[in-house]
């Protein structure tokens, strides 16, 4: 089968969430304040849940698709989504994980989180607009809502710091 299908995208999305998990766990280690540690640990757990969701969804979609070529996405869409996953704040190239070492303030970490949430929303909205399976659509709609909540939460926290 030529081109990328939803299974490729689900693997990319899982990779992005894995990087988010690593970032938030590392951020939790960087700060001594208990409430800040707990916030980053909570966000890491949210990312871990998203990893689990993408793993389960991947298995269900793989079972349904088999070798069906009708689920191959347009090359331009796939290249766009690959570019997002490669360059997003929580990217599949592990760049963000090492950025946390340079974070000196909670506000710095939150600003990285804000950009990461915006990147995730962009990735998931584009994926959603191009998916052909209802189960993927439902999961992405839920995850977009969660990412929007995280973004709002970060913005409120940044204003209070």
Automatic annotation (TrEMBL):
It comes from the Bacteria. Transmembrane segments: none annotated. It holds the Pfam family Rubrerythrin. One of its GO terms (molecular function) is oxidoreductase activity. Signal peptide: none annotated. Residues 8-157 form the Rubrerythrin diiron-binding domain. PANTHER family: HYPOTHETICAL MEMBRANE PROTEIN, CONSERVED, RUBRERYTHRIN SUBFAMILY. This is Rubrerythrin.
């Amino acid at each position: 089968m030529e081109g990328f299908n939803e299974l490729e995208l689900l693997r990319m999305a899982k990779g992005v969430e894995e990087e988010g998990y690593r970032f938030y766990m590392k951020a939790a280690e960087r700060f001594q304040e208990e409430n800040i540690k707990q916030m980053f640990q909570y966000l890491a757990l949210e990312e871990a849940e998203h990893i689990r969701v993408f793993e389960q969804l991947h298995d269900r979609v793989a079972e349904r698709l088999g070798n069906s070529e009708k689920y191959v996405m347009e090359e331009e869409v796939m290249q766009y989504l690959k570019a997002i996953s490669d360059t997003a704040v929580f990217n599949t190239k592990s760049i963000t994980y090492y950025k946390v070492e340079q974070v000196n303030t909670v506000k710095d970490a939150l600003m990285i989180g804000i950009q990461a949430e915006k990147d995730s929303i962009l990735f998931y909205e584009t994926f959603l607009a191009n998916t052909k399976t209802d189960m993927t659509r439902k999961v992405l709609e839920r995850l977009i809502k969660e990412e929007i909540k995280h973004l709002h939460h970060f913005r409120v926290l940044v204003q209070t710091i």
